[in-house]
Amino acid sequence: MNYQDPQRAASDSVPREPAPRELDGNGAASRPPLARPKVADVLALASAPALAELYRFWGGPQAPVPPSNPVDLRRALAAWMSDGARAETRVAALGRRLTQILSMHLDAPSYAYGVEELAEHKPLAYLSRYELDAAVAVLARHGLLIEIQVRRVKDANPRDASARAFAVPMEIGDGLLRQQRAKRRGVFDLLTLRGFLDRKYDDPARCRKTSPTRLREMYKMYSNEAAAVARIERLPDDLRPLIEKSVLQFGGLLPRALFERLDDSSGTWNGSRWKNVLEESLIGTVEKLELSRYGIHHADDTLLVFNEVALAWLRRVAVPGDPDAPHSEHGLGVDLVSNISRFAGFLIEHNVRFTVRGEIFKTTEKRILEELIPNPGRELSRAAVLDFIFGFCRARGLIESTGERTFAISTEGKEWEQQPLEHKLERLVEHAID
Fold this sequence. Notes:
Elements: H1 6-11, H2 39-45, H3 48-59, H4 70-81, H5 84-92, H6 96-107, E1 112-114, H7 115-119, H8 129-141, E2 146-148, E3 165-167, H9 170-184, H10 187-191, H11 193-200, H12 204-207, H13 212-222, H14 225-233, H15 240-250, E4 253-255, H16 256-259, H17 271-280, E5 284-290, E6 299-305, H18 307-318, H19 336-349, H20 362-371, H21 382-395, E7 399-401, E8 407-409, H22 411-416, H23 421-433
Antiparallel strand pairs: 1-3, 2-3, 4-6, 5-6, 7-8
Helix pairs in contact: 3-4, 5-9, 6-8, 14-18, 19-21
């Protein structure tokens, strides 16, 4: 809030429009903005030389020739500075000192920090006041910071540097924080409706209006199977067949490279339009999907149908006439880990001999089967469960043969019981896949 003359404030009780900013000789505004400044405020305050420097910084080494018209130049800069990915790239090129100061502003309310507060901050204690002021000035020249008006005490010198404060323009700060949150999230948050809603309402402007309880209610409503199918059916006629194809044939993930090899009448790739339509319908999105950190060589624009929506459509359309559905289903059950422990205990308490072919004698198998937990439902037969356990223990080295043609627990088998359940399940899944 800016300081006002008390007598003038008392006599002026009628709200007025804010006074227009004074312009200097280069057509730039001369008054700093109030708190929560925007990119437009940075560009309005910038003179012609400052605009040229902003264009060089935000355009990078491959930037085209700047427009000669100041209006077009400001429009191009506004688009660049509001792009979170570009802002992240430009910030990454800054040094440690500038990045540290900018990060402190991003952590502060309204992205604003006073210069005196920065000087008193312990992580910046190694900087002299001259170095701190110079770093803030560099960030301001790059448009990453802008001076804001703050409440001043009466008779304070407006030129006093200790009373100055700077803030990150709102679009730049929000874009940088969104990029940071996107990196912290995993691929499942990108592929699910729940993750999309979390990202959407993680924005500071939206989270004030939407409580976590309301967000859970929204997710429950929009992830409902009937509601998800109805949203697909309401898609435009040119987009609905493509979404159906991507779900039924590609599981809801259609990379651009694969789309361009399709031999049908899908037309040309129009990612920006599809992204807007799919996100407004809460069906999916179009993103550049980077999966290298998961060991998958894929970095391409991809049409994504949210997992909840794709599953709802599969249940409605592909079942029960899905030709790829398995003929029958069997499971090993939740008692598999316990049965492995019972099998190991039986080997410790008894001399279990094996045949010339390395198999357990049938009479011994019957005795072991009596020790296993009975099957609760549609699982494999108890004999098949024992075969799986025996094969797993031999393959993973939990048991070993002795010179007396008996089985004994190996060192790995003795360590098996002390391992956490998650590790045991991982080993079982790996063996089942093998």
